[in-house]
């Protein structure tokens, strides 16, 4: 029984992580159907494993359960993007305030190392350099996590991760959309400096501007996509 239970859990985790990656990277379009039968065939697992994985995605806000009609990738909207952005700012500020107050020398070293790695990568030409974009995304998450890593709250960390995932899905909707000049490295450098100086008020201003700037770019991309469909 234990072996069977372990196998079921590993199958569920495999499907969950694969479909989650497809949703976050927008390989599965927002609003598209998640066909249980197709996923069973794709992964060679049981229907129960697929349904459990999709239920976990529903709990994370990445999928919707339709009454007796299966599952669908969670839709996106400009209103939801702006709501998410403002909620994320509030959550991030709480975590950062705690982190700046509690951070020790080891935390400072993590922040410096994470910024150094991120500054050496660039989110350019996604259609030509998928590997570079993927690496930048990983380093980008690592940097923001390092800033908040001394907060000392498992619940804050969990909610931050959920919001970060949702924000990343929106951001990836805009990667091929032309944008005006934006010095993202300067924004990250300023965040790093404010953290090391323990300047909570400055950090609040910077993180709000940083998140809202991305939201505005994504908004433009979503409006452009909508116009192209008409």
Strand order of the largest sheet: 1-3-2
How many individual domains? 2
- Beta content comes to under 5%
CATH superfamily of the largest domain: GntR ligand-binding domain-like
**Broad shape:** globular
Instruction: Report the CATH architecture of the largest domain.
Output: Up-down Bundle
From N to C, what is the helix and strand string?
Answer: HEHHEEHHHHHH
Q: Which structural class fits the helix and strand makeup?
A: mainly alpha
CATH class of the largest domain: Mainly Alpha
Q: Which ranges are low-confidence, i.e. pLDDT below 50, for 5 or more consecutive residues?
A: 125-129
User: What's the N-to-C terminus distance?
Assistant: 55 Å
How confident overall, as mean pLDDT? 88
Report the CATH topology name of the largest domain. Answer: Four Helix Bundle (Hemerythrin (Met), subunit A)
Can you give the helix content as a percent range? over 70%
Give the biggest sheet: 3 strands, antiparallel
Q: If helices are DSSP runs of H or I spanning 4 or more residues, what is the number of helices?
A: 9
**Roughly how many Å is the radius of gyration?**
19 Å
């Amino acid at each position: 029984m234990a072996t069977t239970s372990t196998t079921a859990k590993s199958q569920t985790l495999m499907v969950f992580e694969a479909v989650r990656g497809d949703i976050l990277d927008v390989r599965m379009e927002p609003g598209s159907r998640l066909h249980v039968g197709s996923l069973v065939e794709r992964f060679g697992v049981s229907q129960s494993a697929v349904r459990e994985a999709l239920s976990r995605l529903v709990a994370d806000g990445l999928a919707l359960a339709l009454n007796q009609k299966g599952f669908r990738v969670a839709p996106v909207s400009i209103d939801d993007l702006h709501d998410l952005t403002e909620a994320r700012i509030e959550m991030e500020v709480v975590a950062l305030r705690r982190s700046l107050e509690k951070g020790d020398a080891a935390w400072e070293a993590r922040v410096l190392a994470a910024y150094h790695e991120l500054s050496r990568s660039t989110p350019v030409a996604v259609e030509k350099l998928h590997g570079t974009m993927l690496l930048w995304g990983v380093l980008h998450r690592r940097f923001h996590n390092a800033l908040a890593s001394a907060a000392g709250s498992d619940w804050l960390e969990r909610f931050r991760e959920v919001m970060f995932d949702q924000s990343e899905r929106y951001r990836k909707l805009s990667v091929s959309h032309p944008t005006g000049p934006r010095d993202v490295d300067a924004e990250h450098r300023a965040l790093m400096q404010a953290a090391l100086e323990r300047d909570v008020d400055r950090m609040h201003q910077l993180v709000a501007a940083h998140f809202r700037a991305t939201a505005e770019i994504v908004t433009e991309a979503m409006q452009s996509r909508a116009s192209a469909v008409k």
